[in-house]
Amino acid sequence: MSVSLLVVEDKDKTLQQVLNLLEPLQFKVTTATDGLDGLSKAKDSFFDMVLVDHKMPVMDGISLIKSLRDLVDYQEQPIFFMTTQELTEIEPRALKAGATACFSKPLNANVVETLRSYMARSVA
């Protein structure tokens, strides 16, 4: 069974880096270019997990997380937050909004292990 992942990232170069990092996990990946696009896609289709960038045009990552948590389908789903900002500054806001975990960019192997762990729970 394939695990579906929505990746919401506005920068093409960063998106490609994220997709390359996640490739070994073989997610069924859908991408969105900003928070509003991500929210629309989350309403149209169900995703097992969501990975959200912090700073985006139209709707930022924290606003997107809050909006996703208001949807019945996403009240318990893992939503991961990624940022270039210092985590100590932004992580409390992201967690309060409903993020499951927060990651610093550029993402690394620890992120892969965290997602692998949640992926195992999704298919269990």
UniProtKB/TrEMBL annotation:
<keyword id="KW-0597">Phosphoprotein</keyword>
<feature type="domain" description="Response regulatory">
    <location>
        <begin position="4"/>
        <end position="120"/>
    </location>
</feature>
<dbReference type="GO" id="GO:0000160">
    <property type="term" value="P:phosphorelay signal transduction system"/>
</dbReference>
<feature type="modified residue" description="4-aspartylphosphate">
    <location>
        <position position="53"/>
    </location>
</feature>
<dbReference type="InterPro" id="IPR050595">
    <property type="entry name" value="Bact_response_regulator"/>
</dbReference>
<dbReference type="InterPro" id="IPR011006">
    <property type="entry name" value="CheY-like_superfamily"/>
</dbReference>
<dbReference type="InterPro" id="IPR001789">
    <property type="entry name" value="Sig_transdc_resp-reg_receiver"/>
</dbReference>
<dbReference type="Pfam" id="PF00072">
    <property type="entry name" value="Response_reg"/>
</dbReference>
<protein>
    <submittedName>
        <fullName>Two-component system response regulator</fullName>
    </submittedName>
</protein>
